[in-house]
């Protein structure tokens, strides 16, 4: 029997980007430097002293000047939601000023107006790997408690300014990545090999407090705001049925669930208290922190790209490639061009795990395939990319999303990562493309910046138009 299924009537279909990966205009209209402006190779090498011409993010795809045309293309696909971020250093160029930069505020006014003109809901990440560089160098990022106050001022400014234009907010992008990548995630300038666990987990605590404050402030400014956390979701499987491997999985999983637990439950879980105690870590709580943490999120959003395995066998603990959190490769799965293992069923699995654990609405805000795309020209002169591999990847994942919804999971929406080609966060490359829209720019800086619809553009358009029904045709 042919399966028939459509997604919920109010389902938010769309795509995701971040300011630092596509806007460009890195010093225009009063913007200050962010940590991204001194990361020409993504997370692959330590930051440089100053911005360099080989940093692809300084120009990005010039979205800052081309956003109207790009939003029109997203609207043509039928987007209901567009996830982007606000570049903190556009609003507070150094991060510790008392007054915001009006030109920066106006840019996002105009961007959100353009989205709403087409009936597209903005979903805004407040801090997406783009801490103002001054806050990183002067204060050592989130290690310093003063960051909570700087973030609070920034949050109050944007919540007040956009209270009638933005309903959906995320406090920190992939907040659990700070454990692996403290500079990009937490703006922490201290080199990772010199960073103590005490400093790292104190920085995590400061982000927790700031995130909960954002929820509190947001609900005071507009009670209709929906404010979520955002984590990397990576299911972890035991490499074997050995109970030692299963316990290893539990311990590894705790490092991730810790972040959602605090955001959703408002306190530190027992397993984390044990970890902190056994590692000699004492988190300093300022007076009032415990109460602040009780301001919990309205929903849980996450990125999903792959799963991983864990084992207690030292000989088999060979870490594979991954998004920002690696793991032992699964021998049963194939991998992308960048070594990320492809596991559509893992998405259904993690959705059920989150919903069983929290009973909070979920939102998939990143999922997609980074691949090498070839722009071709048809006889009629039309240019496109025949990206059937991307269509297949997304289709297989969305079928598993449908399964999870039928399992009873409450899902608000689905936003693919890099809906228009942009600069990679991990490698700062443009050849690693995710989008439905091809951008003619290349890693050597060449290209016209023209936009071309890929084959997947029309496929996703049909998925949205049929509210997922076309997935089962």
From TrEMBL:
Keywords: Glycosidase, Hydrolase. Transmembrane segments: none annotated. GO terms for molecular function: beta-glucosidase activity. Belongs to the glycosyl hydrolase 1 family. GO terms for biological process: carbohydrate catabolic process. The active site is at residue 366. This is Amygdalase. Signal peptide: none annotated. It comes from Paenibacillus amylolyticus. PANTHER family: 6-PHOSPHO-BETA-GLUCOSIDASE ASCB-RELATED, GLYCOSYL HYDROLASE. Gene3D superfamilies: Glycosidases. It comes from the Bacteria. GO terms for cellular component: cytosol.
